[in-house]
Amino acid sequence: MQNKDFVNGLLDFIKRSPTPFHAVQTMVEMLEYAGFKRLSEKEAWGLKGGQGSESCFVTRNDSSIIAFRLNQPLLEHGIHMVGAHTDSPCLKVKPNPEITSGGYLQLGVEVYGGALLNPWFDRDLSLAGRVSYLDEKGEVAHRLIDWEKAIAVIPSLAIHLDREANENRKINKQTDLPPLLMKLPENSDEQVVGFSAMLLEMVNGQIAGDGAKAVKVLDYELSFYDVQAPAIIGLEGDFIASARLDNLLSCYTGLMALIDHKGQQNALLVCNDHEEVGSVSASGAQGNFLKSVLSRLCDSDESFSRTMASSMMISADNAHAIHPNFADRHEPNHGPIINGGPVIKVNANQRYATNSESGAMFRHWCELAAVPVQSFVVRSDMACGSTIGPITANELGVSTVDVGVPTFAMHSVRELAGRLDAYYLYRVLNHYFN
After folding, report:
1. Which residues face 383 on adjacent strands?
2. What are the transmembrane regions (predicted)?
3. What is the pTM of this model?
């Protein structure tokens, strides 16, 4: 695959994936098109554990997914794994969200993850996610929805009303963030505006004869997102600008490396939800999803342990590029450059799972794939983030390296990465799988 085709596919993937649910749905469609077989955790699989060629995937909570190609016995050859996450910091709608103030309708939101909040103001926002409802047959059903168009905005307070806005403005997550949806009609009963009624109309509009009509909304998980499409920007087209680069970029890169995998090495991709809030959930990395799947592929506890001893995990999550306006925030000699290649992330306190052996292996694969490689260490006087890498290494006892693509504005509503770096990472993962 050429760089241009890869990057165009990445932009389309992100645009189609405003929430973890939509990201998994998109990955499912791509895997099925590539000939992968869908499995259910509720049913017996009857797989041969590498005794024959098998390409399968399984999802959990519609927001996490594991896909794999098995070509050789796991016990002798292990499995090469890539891990990423489907979630990104965002604004999630509260259960009883309606707010009417000054004749306007707003929705109460909760901040999900460590979002950079300032960039959310004055953006064209839409809403997407999963809705659970009771249908006319009396059954509980679930459907993904996406308004797609801009339906909301969080207006900034004019500088005339806050003269210190550029020097000393703080954001109150409770009072400053509720998005504005509409101006209520004059003399209307403000209490009659119901968000559930809006959702019901939206769901039934999407059903349109394809299933039983929804009669009552029971619950939902909905997130606001910026409708501005991903784009290639820069005077020479050096950059990818988009929401959710952290970490849909890694999800797509791992997915394409797996789909394009033509070798004999056993290969697996896991994309977990809830990494941005600690991974503590059934579908997060601290849940048993990956271990459960791997255990079903091995025929005993002993074969599982022996398989893990012969296996490897690459935890792919974005890295901080050295910012030209804030170079002093980086450790000297460890400031990754955009379009300088994937980054090996190291932390002595095990916030990243990289050790000298796993880091050396990744460097070797980069050399074989003719891809440049960089290193990142956080300044000793600053706190370090983490990934699913240490969690997975702890849960499975598998050798793990933490890597990522250099990124600006991580956790903003619009992040920036290098057009070359995403393709560099794909080439390394493709070589690693093959």
Report:
1. none
2. none
3. 0.95
Inside any domain, residue 329: yes
How distant, in Å, are the alpha carbons of 119, 153, 408, 411 from that of 415?
10, 19, 6, 7
Residue range 237-292, pLDDT digits in tens: 999 999 999 999 999 999 999 999 988 899 999 999 999 999 999 999 999 999 99
Q: How many structural domains compose the chain? A: 2
Sign of CA dihedral 114, 116, 118, 124: negative
Look at residues 226, 256, 289 and tell me which one is the last residue of a structural domain.
226
**Do residues 193 and 103 touch, judged by C-beta distance below 8 A?**
no
Write out the two tokens for 276: 């941005």
Angstrom distance (rounded) from CA 76 to CA 234: 48
Task: Tell me how far apart the 2 most distant CA atoms of the chain are, in Å.
Answer: 74
Query: Does residue 209 sit in the same domain as residue 337?
Result: no
Place of tokens 């994936």: 17
Q: How far apart are the first and last CA of the chain?
A: 15
Rama region for 177: left / alpha / beta (φ>0; ψ in -120 to 50; rest): alpha
Nearest to 406 by CA among 348, 330, 354, 351: 330
Q: Are residues 139 and 80 in the same domain?
A: no
